[in-house]
Amino acid sequence: MIRIYATSVPVEDQDKALDFYTNMLGFIKKTEVPVGEYKWLTVVSPLEQSGVELLLEPMAFEPAKVYQQALKEAGIPWTSFAVDDVEAEYKRLTELGVEFSMAPKEAGTVKIAVLDDTCGNYIQLMQEL
Amino acid sequence: MPNKTKTFYESEVERLYDDGPIRPEQYAQVRQSKAFMEKFYPKKIELDDLAKAAFMSRFHYVRTFQRLYGLTPRTYLRDLRISKAKRLISQGLPITQVCFDIGYESLPTFSSVFKKCTGYTPRDYYRFNKSNLE
Q1: Domains in chain A: how many in total?
Q2: What domain range includes position A91?
Q3: What is the per-residue pLDDT across A58-67, written as a single tens digit (0 to 9) for each?
Q4: B8-48 pLDDT, tens per residue?
Q5: Closest residue in A to B64 (Cα–Cα)
Q6: Interface residue of A1, A50, A87, A98 to substitute, partner B, most B CBs within 10 Å
Q7: Which of A60, A121, B74, B101 has its C-alpha lying 20 to 30 A from A98's C-alpha?
Q8: B27 and chain A in contact, CB less than 8 A
Q9: Contact criterion met (CB < 8 Å) for B13 and A112
Q10: Which value, to the nearest 10 degrees, does the dihedral of the CA atoms of residues B112, B118, B123, B125 take?
Q11: Which helix or strand (DSSP H or E) is residue B128 part of?
């Protein structure tokens, strides 16, 4: 049966991204396989270590850079991750120096905040209400 | 600190939700039924209990819940229980205990629902998760 095993965020520098996604956001490194000058580098949630992997994908395709930049300029998140308490994560990450383009805000059935992943993307944190 | 000027995205979020057709009290009412599920999922929960927690009629409650969350209260409760089961299985609890701890009264039913939701039987999920951690 078909299933989703990975999704991705494009990043400018894979090592820098791994540092941010593990040490700041709290993901765990799952796979690191050399592929040419890049690597197949994935992280997982500590709670779903056998679940969907997040691929930190090298941004090496020029037209895609234009798209990524346009999203960033509009403040549109590349993707969204779930957290138990968005206010607590906002406080924790702000204290670590992470910048947010949008502070926690209720939007219907969720509370969301948007942070800068320092790798070219905005990322949304979502708490279901 | 967030930027002082709102991004296009934040402005759109405000436009879509602050002036939306759903009244704030409806969100609050449905959230109360979700809180009820979170508290009582280990026990048997009837639709009437949830509608009562939301201060709505059964019909109005199901319709409102589905409009807000995109799925029925029954499916939401099932997913909540399976999500709790995954955590308990990962912690190494016996499958039979997990089954009863999350509100199922029959092991075959629990196993069948778990497989439908995750693609694995509870036992295979435990083995797969354990091998991943190792």
Answers
A1: 1
A2: 6-128
A3: 998 999 999 9
A4: 999 999 998 877 778 888 899 999 999 999 999 999 999 99
A5: A109
A6: A50
A7: A60
A8: yes
A9: yes
A10: 180
A11: helix B122-133
> Which residues of chain B have a CB within 8 Å of the CB of A105?
10, 13-14
Domain annotation for chain B: domains and CATH numbers: 1-70 (no CATH), 74-134 (1.10.10.60)
Contact A111, A84 (CB under 8 A): no
pTM: 0.85
In a domain, A122, yes or no: yes
Residue written as token pair 């999920």? B125
On whether residue A42 sits in a domain, the answer given is: yes
> Which residues on chain B are in Cβ contact (under 8 Å) with A69?
none
In the stretch 31-70 of chain B, residues with CB closer than 8 A to chain A read 31, 34, 68-69
Q: Are A31 and A41 in contact (CB under 8 A)?
A: yes
Q: Does the beta carbon of A45 lie under 8 angstroms from any beta carbon of chain B?
A: no
| A106 contacts A127 by C-beta, under 8 angstroms | no
Neighbours of A65 (CB within 10 A): 14
- Closest-CA residue to A28 (of A18, A15, A38): A18
Instruction: Note the ipTM here.
Output: 0.89
Residue A1 falls inside a structural domain = no
